Amino acid sequence: MTQTPAGFGITLIGDRINPGFKSTRELLECNDLAGIQALAVRQAEAGAASLDVTIGARAQSDPQYLVIVIRAIQEAVPLPLCFDYPDAPTQELCLRTYDQARAGGQLPLVNSITEDRWHLMELYRLRPFRVVVMVSERVENGVARANKTAADFASTAKRAALRLNRDYGIALRDVFIDISVSAVVADTQGMHRATLEAIHALRADAELKGIHLMGGLTNIGQQLPAKAADGSDLKLALENAFLTLAVPAGFDAVLCTPWRPYAPLPDDNYVLQVYREFLEQSGTNALRVVRKLYRRV
Amino acid sequence: MSERAEQEKQLIEWLSDMREDEAIALANRMLLEEKANPLRVLEVCRMAMDIVGQRFSQGEYFLPELVLAGEMLEKIGAVAKPLIRHSDGPAQRKLARVLIGTVHGDLHDIGKNIVTFMLDINGFEVKDIGVDVPVQTFLEEISGFQPDVVGLSGFLTLAFDSMKETIGAIEAAGARERLKIMIGGGQIDETVRAYAGADAFGRNAVDAVSLCKNWAAAA
């Protein structure tokens, strides 16, 4: 039986309004507002709790179009929006355009801040919002550094969440920690192991009760073949394998395509077994295990 | 076919079929016991790498095979290189110099590291200057290292602007005409290439190697 991510018991943020998807890019390029609205409705019907929104670089060259797209989406669905821009002027335009009443009174989400992009929080003077904090990097002695270990992810997440709570009064339930779920195909540094360990650690931290732990799943199966060695859909199976381990550990929100037929995998599932084996390995040995995903060796 | 020719054929086959243990054992035997010409063994390894690259381009192989093949080549190289004597022939000349780094504002390094590794094992002299590289650092490194090719890496959408800025600064410094610039990263395509003002973009490490080989051949 298949389920939606909501069937995993987690919050779903729909990721389709993004020109990274070719079909969406075409809708955006043709100014097909009805098509974008239909995409919003389809995601809502598939169980999305909110919708991620980006129209790509056109937001900077043609800001009025961004306003038109946001209004069109809000006319079509009563869901809160998650604005996916790293720069303050574009976020400001999104937040000014957002109509909270149309979203059932729910706050928008700003996706995303990092310790190095903390200046985006100045926008909090405009209006309250929920925050997505990307913890793939931190600031150390004034310099941005990539996080690679579970301790890096967890300490960056905790520092940011408590700072948002202390300095802006943002409730922990309004903080979404975005833990990167990287491509297994290039993971020789144990990033997946670190991600899962950080989820465990953050969920176990009593000071962080209520915080959301989320991530996007589009990278996990990148540059791998379509079919797994057992004949299943490899990308879907990998996403399921990650969720099967991450959700019980405390992962409770996901940025993804809402109608992906997600379901927990049984213990004897081939891809889940290989994924577990991969989690035990580092260096090129991890890649030897990755090969087993698509080739019986 | 002579015994040596058959051995070489076998080595190419095992390397390109990812039979790591057999390939490395055979290469070691050829080098250490049978005193095969180390330059010839490395040449054979590169032929195998070309097959791996072709299989990758055709969708038969994926990133793990590229990296594992590269690792085999490195292991064999570590045995072969100390054995090279002047009488074996001229030392392999580096094809070209490549300077590579992730542009400022972006800390992603996985793709860049793979490209660096693949260029290196394909005979390029590569200098990797890390992540979040300021424009000024690129200019200084170009002036010091004198690369033939500059590779700019970036995964985030905000990297597109950093690439444009970096390439603009290289141009303003009067160094643009002397080198080729390639860009790569998760979302890079022709639109980004045109926006940033690069000469070419690559979707993966094999593309990067092909671009550099073509430019080196044309130079």
Structure description:
The complex is a heterodimer of chains A (297) and B (219). Chain A is 40% helix and 15% strand. With 297 residues, chain A is of the alpha/beta class. Chain A has a single domain, classed as Dihydropteroate synthase-like (TIM Barrel, Alpha-Beta Barrel). In chain A, helix 8 links the parallel strand 9 and strand 10 (253-256). In chain A, helix 2 (33-45) packs across helix 4 (63-76), helix 4 (63-76) packs parallel to helix 5 and helix 6 crosses helix 7 (191-204). Chain A is globular, with a radius of gyration of 19 Å. Chain B is α/β, with parallel strands linked by helices and 219 residues long. Chain B folds into two domains: 3-88, Methionine synthase domain (Methyltransferase, Methionine Synthase (B12-binding Domains), Chain A, domain 1), CATH 1.10.1240.10; 97-218, Rossmann fold, CATH 3.40.50. Chain B is 57% helix and 11% strand. Chain B has helices at residues 3-16, 20-33, 38-57, 63-80, 110-121, 135-145, 159-172, 190-196, 205-218, and strands at 97-102, 125-128, 149-153, 180-184, 200-202. Chain B is elongated. The mean pLDDT of chain B is 92. The A-B interface holds A 20, 56-57, 86-87, 136-137, 144-146, 182-183, 185-186, 188, 222-225, 284, 287-288, 290-291, 294 and B 18, 59, 62-65, 67-68, 71, 107-111, 114, 131-132, 156-158, 160, 186-187, 195, 204.
User: Which percent range fits the helix content of chain A?
Assistant: 40-55%
Output the CATH topology of the largest domain in chain B. Rossmann fold
How large a portion of the residues of chain B is in β-strands, by DSSP E?
Answer: 5-15%
Strand count, sense and barrel status of the largest sheet of chain A are: 8 strands, parallel, barrel
What spatial order of strands do you see in the largest sheet of chain A?
A: 1-2-3-4-5-8-9-10
What's the number of helices of chain A? 10
> Tally of extended strands of chain B?
5
Provide the residue-averaged pLDDT of chain B: 92
Mean pLDDT across residues of chain A:
95
Major sheet attributes of chain B: 5 strands, parallel
Q: What's the CATH C level of the largest domain in chain B?
A: Alpha Beta
N-end to C-end Cα span of chain A? 30 Å
Instruction: Provide the gyration radius of chain B in Å.
Output: 19 Å
Largest two-chain interface:
A-B, 25 and 25 residues
Question: What is the oligomeric state here?
Answer: heterodimer
The total of beta strands of chain A comes to: 10
